[in-house]
Amino acid sequence: MKGARASLGLTALAIFVASCSHGLYPDPPVDTQALGRADEEFVACLRAAARKMDDHVSSVPDIARGIQAVCEPQWENSQQVRAQGTDVLAQEMSRQDRAGHELEISTAVVLDERAKR
Predict the structure, then answer these.
(1) Residue 73: inside a domain
(2) How many folded domains does the chain comprise?
């Protein structure tokens, strides 16, 4: 019985934490124009870095990690614009949710740039 209560408590906590980042509470308004500009700057940086760094010999994931590092300031800027008006916990949860997306986007850009050549 004690284990069941602990499990129920952890489940309730997980639901509460998930609800904070997944829409049970409305997100604050985001400046969509500023967000669009920030995202465009990030992708433009990735494209320029991919063209410069890709030797077409190294693996795509290696190049993607390299351009990701070069464009980290632009990524952070887009994340800051996206997080405006949210509390610190929501910002951190959002950052963790998006951490894998940065590499996915970088990889897609490398593949796209390679296809153009």
Answers:
(1) yes
(2) 1
pLDDT in tens, 46-62: 999 999 999 999 999 99
What are the residues whose beta carbons fall under 8 Å from the beta carbon of 91, sequence distance 6 or more? 83
What's the whole-model pTM score?
0.69
pLDDT digits (tens, 9 = 90+) for 65-106: 999 999 999 998 988 888 787 777 777 777 777 777 888 999
Residues 6+ apart with CB under 8 A from 103: 64, 65, 68
Spatial CB neighbours of 95, under 8 Å, sequence gap ≥ 6:
79, 83
Query: Residue 65's domain spans which residues?
Result: 30-116
